[in-house]
Structure formats: structure tokens, C-alpha cells
Amino acid sequence: MKKRLNQLAATAICGNDISSSCLYVSALAIVYAGQYAWISLLMVAFILFLFRKIYGEVVGALPLNGGAYNALLNTTKKSTASVAASLTVLSYMATAVISASESVKYAHSLWNSIPVMYTTIGLLIVFMTIVIMGIGESSKVAISIFIFHLCSLVLLCLFCGYYLFQNGFDNLIANFNNPIEGSITTALFFGFVAAMLGISGFESSANYVEEQKDGIFPKTLRNMWIIVTVFNPLIAFLALAIVPMATIHSNEETLLSFMGQTAGGNWLFYIISIDAVLVLSGAVLTAYVGVGGLVERMTLDRILPKFLLAKNKKGSSYLIFITFFFLCVTILIITKGNLKALAGVYTIAFLSVMILFGFGNLLLKINRKELPRPEKAGIISVFIAIMGVVVALIGNIILKPEYLVIFLEYLIPTLLIVGIMLYRIPILKALLEFIKYLTPNNKSVFENIDKKILRMIQKINAQQFVFFTKGDNVATLNKVLQYIKHNEDTRRLKIVTVLKPNEHLPPNLIKDVEVLDRAYPDIIIEFIEEHGIFNPEKIEELSNKWNIPVNFMFIGSPGDTFPYRIEELGEVRLII
Question: Domain span at residue 445?
Fold first, then answer.
């Protein structure tokens, strides 16, 4: 039986990413909001609180790996979902490279003889090896890092609090009386915009939800929210209480270790520095685990090449992780370790994914309103949450407009690769026409190429798909055909109804299928009447019998009376 993660393990994997923000987000918020930084951080915590229910509703209804991609895939077009997937992959690539590089730079500050570039690549190799060994090994490493990090933060806060009461509140009062540029509103706005980086990693848990035990996912959201809400504003407040404003600005990149040295001495400085090395390394692990679940799901849906699904004895899709590693190293070499530009890619990609997930929630309410879910986010709260992230996205572009250009330089090639896979049939047909145009009649210079392209098209179209119908009317079945025509490369569809003992075939169903068969001459429609009970075992049986992967099987949205949860049906997709 597949090993699944408990609350601590699942929280540790995503928690290392989001809690690593404590190392830099408080200083970043102070730079832009000054003495009001802790308020900006509380505003961020409020937006994250709203997103807890947004994620809880979507993943509760559709508990499959893929995050925003999964949410949009089951509520709208495959191409729209692919954009969300591309943004998420970009975000994970940036997370891995930035976190690995920053971790090594912290280590370099402790031990100057460490070669930064080679050690960063070595760190990426270490975590690639860990995830290839399996999710169980990944969680053990993540738990160790997570517990040490939380203990370090608690220790830092306690000593800073003790230092404050020992030395008085003069520094705090001086900082709060410090003049700010512009108005308080402007300071809070830009502080909020910068502080939104502090919730990066919140989306990660949704990308490996299938590896978590039942009921664990909403607990990971709650735990991450508590960490962000408690530590980020508290650390910002304590920094203002014990460190002069000018010193905060000059120690922005290593503020926490400087606070540790101020409040506790060199020993606390070293603990916080070591903690930074470890937790940033943990964020690299989060990127690997998150991208693994997402890319595997994309590959199953034929958005990425099939060879990526190759697995080792541990059941790990090792080629996904190896490919991800090489992409990260390529970015590291191209940027020559100067990752400020990549940070802009990370920011825009991450915030865009959050916005798309919010829209996925709205589409779930509209298109899948009968789908059972453990909790629901209110419409108003969803709009407020989306607008909060939109404001943060616009604000970040205003702060660093050049980052948008760099972001597009990374996004466009990614979308091109995905677009080629999504639209490979039209592209191959266009190539055939182009070859015919170039060659004279009856003199096919490119005859072998023609045949190879035709065989390739036939092979892609030969993949069969299945739609399980409960006796839907012709209008509903027409929606199914429309979806398949516009989203899947196939010419073969089985429409299957599973009848219980003594149950009769719905009237007009066969006639409706015949009508659709004539209406869609490019798709061979086969109607099949199966006997038995429609359940996970029946789906698995038919999948093996017809050699059709479960993720190529579709159903309509089940209602409250449906006896199974959607995740119990495997990778079956909702399309109407």
C-alpha cells in the first residue's frame, strides 16, 4: 500500500518553504513600510486566511495533485489549466534556484572557503537524490529541518523579547517616531506588496495532496497560516524594538542573524545562520516535491512528453526530477548566480498562480456546484482575496517594472513547449501542407517524412477516451463531444453506461449516441452497455480490459447522493 503523509510530514514539506520567508520578509516589509511593517504583514495574514478556505474548498472537492492546474482542468479548458501549470513550474524553478543559492550564501558567510556556484549545484543534486528515493525519505528530511527552524525562531523571539525588557523601549519609540516617505497609506501599500512574498509556498501542499492522508490537507493550510501570522509580524515588531532603523536597512539580507547576535551574542548568530542554511535547503525540497506531483499530472494528461512518467523501484518519477535539476542548473549558469532578476520571475509567477487558483474556486462554484466539498469559501471573501493578490501583483510590477520583461522571457518559452504539445496535431497537419506546397505533384521528395508525420498523427489520435454516462440527454452528451473535440487529440470515444442488476437502459440513449455519431464524423463513437456496479473497482477493471489509462476516462459532476469521493475514482476527470 502506498505510504501517505501524516500532518507533521505534510506540513513540514510545504512549511519549510513558507516559513523560510521569515528570514527576509520582515526586513523587506520594514524597508518599504518602516515602523508600520508589522501592520502590512498582518494584512498579508488576513489575505492568507481567506485563501485557506479557497484552497480548502477546491482541493476538498477535487483532491488530486496539480494545485491551480487541477482546479482549472476540472472546471474549464485544458489550455487555460496549462497556463496555470506553466506558471507553477516557473515558480518552482525559481524557488529551487533562489533557495539553494541563498542557502549556500548563508553557509559561505560562516565558512568563506565554500565555492558558492559548485556548492549550489551540489545542493540541488542532494535534494534531487532525496526525492528520487521517495516521498517517505523526503518527509523525514523535511521534518528535521522544520522542527529545527521553528525552535530557532522561538529561541530568537524569546531572546529578543528578553533583550527588549532588559534595555528598555527607547529604540522602539525612536523607530516609531521615525519620519516616513509619503503617507501612511502609501507605506502600508508598498509594505503589503513586498510582504506578499511571505506567503510563497502556501500553494505547494495542493501539488502533493494525493500523498497526504485523508483530512490532512486543510490542517497543512491552517498550520502554515499560523506560522505566517505569528512569526512574520512578531519578528518585524521585535526588529523595530531592538535594532535602529538605519541598521535594519544596512542588514536587510541577514536581519535575523544580526538580531540574534544583538540579543543573544555569537552563539545565537550561528544558530540562526545555520537555521537559514537548513530551512532554505528545505525550500529546495519543497520545490522538488511540488513540481513532481504537478509535472506527473501534466504528463498523464498528455501536456508533456510521456517518457517523463518512467518510475524506479521506489515508485518515483525520477526523470521528472532529473529534468528539473538540469533546468535549474541551466538557469543558475545563465544568471551566473545573480538571482535578483529571477526573484522577479518568482514573484510574478507565484502571485499569478494564486490569482488563477482564486478564479478556479469561482469556476468550481459555477460549473461544479453539485460536487460535494467539506467547506465553502464565501463569494465576497473569494473576490477580496483575489483583489488582494491582484493589488500585490500590480504593486510589484510598479516597484520593479523590469522584472515583468524578464518574467515574460522565461514564460514565453515555457508556454511554447506546452503549446506545441497541446496543439501538436494542427502543427503536424500544417507541416504536412507546407511539405506538399514545397514539392511538385507526384514527386514527393519528402515521402518518408510525410509517412512518419501521418503515422505520428494516427498514433496520437488512436488513443481512446471513455465517458461514463448515467443516461444523460443528447444536449449533455453534445457538451462532452465538444469538450473532447477542443481539448483532446483523439478520434475514438467510448460512451459507457454501467447498469445494475435488473436496471434498464435509459430511453433514447442509443438513438442520442447515433445522432452524435453522425454529427461528429471525425470521432468514432462506440456505445457500450456494461453490467455491474459503477465503482472504483469497475473503473480499474475496464481500464485494464481496454488498456485505457484512468486519466483518459471522464464523468459528469457527481451529486450529493454519489457514494464515492472523486479521489476514490483515481485520475478520472470531470468535464461537464
Answer: 424-455
